Amino acid sequence: MGLGKKMDEMLNDVSAKGETSPLLFVDVSEYPDGCQLSGLYKQAQGKITFRLNKVCEGKEVSFNVEAESEHELLGKVIALINR
Hints:
With about 80 residues, the chain is an alpha+beta fold. Helices cover about 30% and strands about 35% of the residues.
């Protein structure tokens, strides 16, 4: 499904809005004040289930996300990143 690449593209698009963007996305392996995102997903029975792990300032938070399309999933993930 290539969800990782699509997620990077969507984060880049959101970040490109400049000052009106709710986030800044930089695709680097290490960034001292940034958050690290990871996760696993599976697609079955017409649904995508995604386990998102977000680590910010040494604190890890996990979310379970379900969606019926990639677009819906990416939108939900963007909303969770901003929490």
